[in-house]
Amino acid sequence: MSDTDSLTRMLRCAPAPAERVVDEFRERAADNADKTSGDDFRAQWRSLAALGVLRRTGGGPDGPGPVTRGLAAIEGIGLAGIDPGLCYALTSQLFGMQHPLHTTLSRPGQDITESVEEGRTLLCHALTERVGGSDPLSMATRAEPDRDGYVLTGAKTFVTAAPVADLAIVFARTATGRAPFALTAFLVPLDTPGVSRGETFNKTALRSAPMGELLFDGARLPATAVIGGEGSGLGIMSATTAWERALILGYALGPMRLLLDRTARWAREREHFGRRMGASHQVAARISDMAMTLHRSRVQLYALAAALDAGTSARQLAAEAALTKISVSEDYLRMTEHATALAGVRAFLPDTGLAADPLSPLAALTYAGPNDLLRVGVARQLGLPVEN
What we know:
Layout: H1 3-11, H2 16-36, H3 41-50, H4 66-79, H5 84-98, H6 102-105, H7 113-117, E1 123-126, E2 142-146, E3 149-160, E4 167-173, E5 183-189, E6 195-200, E7 211-222, E8 226-227, H8 233-247, H9 253-269, E9 271-272, E10 275-276, H10 281-309, H11 318-343, H12 359-363, H13 371-381
């Protein structure tokens, strides 16, 4: 058995049906990565959707549940070398919108499930505002009742996929103050009169995932645009956020494994001070730590996916989701630090095969809720009287 085979066996800690899906999508996406690398974002999105990445279906009697299957599909395409930014955007839509809002997306007369799963319709999640940040009850965007619908006014920022999306899940104020029922969620077509796209941000992390602003200037929405009923916005936000925190870092599993593989290969082959670099105890310890963080991340993410498949609500898993998001994001950063230390200057040269991307792991500490705020929530669960 080769060193790579031994490592693969060591890290295959997901359920066997999930591992089969990982292997399947890694193989199916391998050709896709080469053929579509020069395409624009929407073309690559449609190509991956055609492989079934966005389908909310299980694997049959012997296969994984739909959540586990989705996580495994995302990991598989990441292992095939699909750009991490694209993997992130796919993961955000699948677990931040499709799964928690599937009842809304498939309601009679407005069923967009098939279009979304096939990649013809792209969703975005518009919550954050420039002033509000992580405080949703401070939002200024408002939806005022008008005849048989609403008039939407305001702006959302830092919205993943806003420059290219077709539909947005928009959270707006329908009552004054900081009451828990002051917010409402709407499903808004982005070609609605009065809706426009604002600034597109030139990011330093996950660069291929477009991010921008959405502007609403008296956009008229029908009453059917409401998701879950007026005043239920905070509850919907809690559900979508819990789903995203639970599984958004699934996008990183493929890149983490590729990082480990290339670093271990470098340490096995590199001659250093008259011996293989991997003979150093310090080098060996760093690579062992990389394997440990990846193993831990896979166990945590697949455990949450299994719980969701078993019918546990995302809100019940909110604390576990926060702990998993903190743990996996910080492990991803730690892995990148180890790989960068071992590659030396080659980590900063694009053509060495060892180039590192420290900014994308750093970004993981902030999206789906900054880790510092998530720690506050966990502390509250432990009974500490801590405030934001």
